[in-house]
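Q: How would the C-alpha cells look for this protein?
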Amino acid sequence: EAAELRAQHQREKELNAKSKVTTAATIFGDIAHKKVKEVKVVLKVDASGSLEVLNKAIPALSTDEVRVTIVHSAVGSISANDVTLAEASKAFLASFHVTADAKARAHADQGGVDIRTYTVIYELLDDLKKAMSGLLDPEYVDKIIGHAEVRATFTVTKSSNTVAGLFITDGFTRRDALMRITRDSNILHTGKVGSLRRFKEDVKEVKTGFECGLTVENFQDIKVGDIMEFYLKEKVARKVTG
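A: Here is the predicted structure in C-alpha cell form.
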C-alpha cells in the first residue's frame, strides 16, 4: 500500500511538472488545439504485450476534433489509486483482462467512477469511439418539408409587405419554416417564413392541396410563378469512424 501511494505521488508530481512547463511549442500547441476536445484514459492490462498494443492503438484514435490521451497505463489490477487518478482527471477507466481489487471497487462506488472491463481489444476501442462521438458537435442538415407555387401577390397597405398567394403542391409549410424562393430554376432568396394565413386567420401549418397567404421576412420581390421550397434544420449526431 505504501509503495502504491509513493507511485501515485510520483505520477501526480510528473503530471504537475508537465502542466507547469511552458515553452513556445506548448503555447502554440494549446492555440492549435483549443477547439479540440479530449477523452482521457486510465488503463490497466494483464501483460506488457497488451500494454504495448493498446498504448499505440488508443492514441491513434485521435482526430482533428477529438484527442484521446492516456493519462496512465500499466500492467496489473486496478487499484484505489487508479480510481483516484481517473476521478481527478475525469478519465475513462478501463481494464483489459484484469479486475479491480476490493478497495478499488469500493472507492469507485463511492466516487461514482465507472470501471469498464474488456477481454477483446476492439470492444475497448469501440467504446472509446463512442465516447469521442459524444463530444463531436452535431451536424445540421436541410430537411425538405414541402413546395408551393406563387399564384398571386398582394401588397399590405399599412406595412407595404408583399403577401404571396400560394398553392401547396407537395408536403406542407409551417410558420417556423425556412425557405428558398426560386425563379426560372435559380435561387432568388433564402430566408424565413414571416407570416402564414388562411382566410385572414393565422395558422401554424398548411398542407398539400390547400391555398394560403404567406409573407417572407425581409423580402418583397415575389412574383407569380415563383416556386418556394420549405425546409427545417435537422440536428444529426456524428460518429467517429475508422
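Confidence is low (pLDDT under 50) at residues 18-33.

The two ends are 41 Å apart (CA to CA).

Upvote if useful.
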